[in-house]
Write a structure and sequence with these properties.
Keywords: ATP synthesis, Cell inner membrane, Cell membrane, CF(0), Coiled coil, Hydrogen ion transport, Ion transport, Membrane, Transmembrane, Transmembrane helix, Transport. It comes from Leptothrix cholodnii (strain ATCC 51168 / LMG 8142 / SP-6). Its main location: membrane. With 156 residues, the protein is mainly α. It has one domain. The chain contains 2 helices and no strands.
Amino acid sequence: MNLNATLFAQIVVFGILWWFTMTFVWPPITKALDERAKKVADGLAAADKAKLELATANKRVEEQLVQSRNENAKLLADAEKRAQAIVDEAKKRAEEEGSKIVAAAKAEADQQSIQAREVLREQVAALAVKGAEQILKREVNAGVHAELLTRLKTEL
């Protein structure tokens, strides 16, 4: 065997193997690698997109929470104002009712005072007549002296 022929045969076999590999083996391998790279790239893009969507969703949730807190605070303030208004209105009504009760009590007291004065006048008039009767030692006729007694009542 000749070393040159062996070397030449190995070069020819290597060339055929290289051609066969580049024609039939390499394209499916590169195609599979390209598809795999595309899938990885798509997965990374989807992960980035999901991360952005998550950040956006978190931001919206935070905004909604802030808005809900503000609305709750506003509703609470409105409820407190309404409660204070109801309390103030109830106080006002109670004061008005108290004033009416006091006025009615004063009117009733005045009426009773007037009635008590009338009763006292009549009693004083009767006592005055009895006293005058005792002084004069005779009986005073109430029917005859009615005008005198009425005048005496009004003076008292």
